[in-house]
Amino acid sequence: MKHNGIDLWIQAQLGQIQNVAYALIDENLIVLTKSENIYNWIEEDVSDITGISLADVFPELIGIETFLQKLAINQSEEYVIPKIYRPNDTILGKFFTMYISPFFQHGKLLLVTLVDVTLQSELEQSLRQERNELRLNILKQKRIEKALYLSQQRYTLIEHGVNDGLWDWDLQTDKIYFSVRWKSMLGYNDDDIGDNPNEWFQLIHKENLEEFKSQIDNHVTGKSEYLKVEYRIFHKDGHYCWMLCRGMAVRDKTGKSYRMAGSQTDVTQNKEFEQQLYHSAFHDSLTGLPNRAFFMKILESVFEKRYLNPNKLNVIFFLDLDHFKVVNDSLGHLVG
Question: What does pTM read for this prediction?
Answer without folding.
Answer: 0.46
